[in-house]
TrEMBL record:
InterPro entries on file: Peptidase_S8/S53_dom (IPR000209), Peptidase_S8/S53_dom_sf (IPR036852), Peptidase_S8_Asp-AS (IPR023827), Peptidase_S8_His-AS (IPR022398), Peptidase_S8_Ser-AS (IPR023828), Peptidase_S8_subtilisin-like (IPR050131), Peptidase_S8_subtilisin-rel (IPR015500)
Active-site residues, record numbering mapped to chain: 162, 217, 459
Name of the protein this chain belongs to: S8 family serine peptidase
Key words, A-Z: Hydrolase, Protease, Serine protease, Signal
Signal sequence segment: 1-20
Organism: Nonomuraea bangladeshensis
SUPFAM superfamilies per UniProt: Subtilisin-like (SSF52743)
Statement: the UniProt record of this protein carries the keyword Protease: yes
Keyword Hydrolase: yes
Similarity field: Belongs to the peptidase S8 family.
Residues covered by the Peptidase S8/S53 domain: 154-537
């Protein structure tokens, strides 16, 4: 079953409701296999600075064995028994966290089935690309004007750490860097309980090509960032920059810890300027170091997620990567969490209710050094689904809200590229190629047809901020020693905030959302310069390419 994540569809709103790099697990001896001594599993063992040898000894004493190591991020990938291994290793003072190599995130790109046929809802033609009239989001942040003045530089590299990118899509291919793209994911047909996860493998060794996206989420994100100006479909926020697929998400939309760490480290190593992380952390909605409701093994796992992701973020930032994250879609004030009844969210059916507080972290949205983005609907209000918080929200951006107005309309959501094969598999395209609903749009202006889909979510908001950050690097970046441009992430962050359009809290601050007879009240704290709904303000592409810092 899919879970609502950083990217949601209008349908969800209506209801209000891994391996060493390049090495499939089944090809590695004694990894997550049944060996002498019982069932085994892969673990990521994070050690304190300078304590690698002691941590390795702890692994050995607990009956485990080293598979590989990443000294950049300070962890050992080990195989050990499924019962008792984590607690035994975690009892050593040299170890700061232990986690099974399991899901830490999820992204969705489900088709919307609740709207009338495509011919019923129409958007006016506007100057620019054929579908520009449908891009209210680009007009909201001035990207339509910014495109003409500064579309971004090909020397700027943007990593999409997601479910993949359809690099063959006509409205992505011109900006797609296949040579630098990597897939750190091995498809997993079934989860550890034998339930379907990714389904049958499409490629040899269950390793998809670097230009493939079997979920659609990553393609939508990439398109919003940098679909080119080429007379096809839409234009992204920064249509002149390069896109690199640094895949960390499964076909099913789940994100496992090791691929996420590998992806961030790789982004730093190849000179990425901006990285977009539009995924919702799971299995722990809130990661708590020592919650009494959790077992020692569960505490160690949450410590590992917080530690590992922070180390990977720090590593990438030191290499010059600005990191942008979706804030989340739980309609929650992240500064005042009280109950988490959705964790652990993997495998399915494992969740339990537990008390939480503000010491528990939503990762990566609350990790240090991450720019976290809330979502707005077309009226400019914070989207009903978007998480918020005066400590957590850095900036706001269009994320879509199909319910932002009377009734629900697909055209209030964010339109971006979608892989044709994903839409066909979901039954959203007929045998004749025609879309089956208003959530899918086809453009055949240049002969060959390309497809686009409307989606809502903070997953859709984050790439708007990522695109603006890429424009800032294009404008203010300096030549890097190895080629391309570079700009310190702290400077990018400062410029992004300075160029944002400040938005005050609504009046009254207790904003009431009324959706089909249901109400939700979200309270906005802070002032115009920095508040829980909008952070430092709405990102502004036009200001980014014109203002004087």
């Amino acid at each position: 079953m899919r879970r609502v994540a950083s990217g949601v569809t209008a349908l969800a709103l209506l209801g209000l409701a891994a391996c060493a790099p390049g090495t499939p697990a089944e090809q590695r001896p004694q990894s997550a296999q049944t060996q002498a001594g019982g069932p085994r599993a892969d673990y990521l063992v994070f050690y304190a600075e300078g304590r690698q040898r002691q941590a390795l000894d702890a692994v050995t004493h607990a009956g485990g064995a080293k598979v590989s190591e990443d000294a950049r991020l300070g962890y050992i990938l080990a195989t050990g028994g499924r019962d008792g291994f984590a607690e035994a290793v975690g009892g050593d003072a040299a170890v700061v966290g232990v986690s099974r190599d399991r899901s830490i995130g999820h992204a969705t790109a489900e088709p919307v089935r609740s709207f009338p046929d495509a011919g019923v809802l129409k958007a006016g033609r506007a100057a620019g690309e054929p579908l520009a009239g449908r891009q209210w989001d680009m007009r909201m942040i001035g990207a339509d004007r910014a495109n003409a003045k500064n579309p971004g530089s090909k020397d700027v590299l943007v990593a999409v750490i997601d479910t993949g990118i359809d690099g063959k899509h006509p409205d992505i291919a011109p900006n797609f860097d296949r040579a630098l793209s990597r897939n750190f994911v091995t498809d997993r047909p079934k989860d550890e309980n034998g339930e379907t996860l990714d389904g049958p493998c499409e490629a040899a060794g269950c390793k998809d090509p670097v230009d493939q996206d079997d979920d659609g989420h990553g393609t939508h994100v990439a398109s919003t960032i940098a679909s080119p100006i080429n007379g096809i479909g839409i234009a992204g926020v920064a249509p002149g920059v390069r896109l690199v697929n640094v895949r960390a998400g499964q076909d099913s939309g789940f994100f496992f810890l090791k691929p996420s760490l590998d992806a961030l480290a790789y982004a730093g190593d190849i000179g990425v300027d901006v990285a977009n992380l539009s995924y919702y952390v799971d299995p722990w909605l809130f990661n708590c170091a020592r919650n009494p409701a959790d077992s020692r093994k569960e505490q160690l796992e949450q410590q590992a997620i917080v530690t590992g992701m922070q180390r990977a973020i720090d590593y990438a930032r030191k290499k010059g990567v600005t990191i942008v994250s979706a804030l989340g879609n739980g309609s929650t004030d992240l500064g005042r969490p009280t109950v988490d009844d959705k964790s652990p969210g993997y495998p399915e059916g494992s969740a339990k209710a537990r008390k939480v507080d503000n010491t528990c972290l939503n990762v990566p949205a609350e990790s240090d050094g991450v720019i976290s983005v809330s979502a707005l609907g077309p009226s400019g209000r914070k989207a009903v689904y978007s998480d918020y918080g005066v400590e957590q929200t850095d900036v706001a951006a269009p994320g879509g809200d199909a319910t932002d107005g009377k009734g629900a309309k697909a055209t209030r959501s964010i339109l971006a590229a979608a892989p044709e094969h994903v839409l066909r598999a979901a039954g959203r395209i007929g045998a004749d190629g025609a879309p089956k609903g208003a959530d899918v749009v086809r453009d055949c202006t240049r002969g060959a047809c390309s497809y686009y889909q409307y989606l809502d979510g903070t997953s859709m908001a984050a790439p708007h901020a990522t695109g603006v950050a890429a424009l800032l690097v294009s404008r203010f970046g300096k030549p890097a020693p190895g080629g391309g441009l570079t700009l310190d992430p702290a400077t990018v962050e400062k410029l992004l905030y300075a160029s944002a359009d400040p938005k005050p809290c609504p009046t009254p601050r207790q904003h009431v959302y009324q959706i089909y007879g249901q109400t939700q009240t979200h309270v906005c704290e802070g002032d115009t310069a920095d508040n829980g709904f909008y952070g430092h303000g709405l990102v502004d592409a036009w200001k980014a390419v014109t203002f004087t810092p």
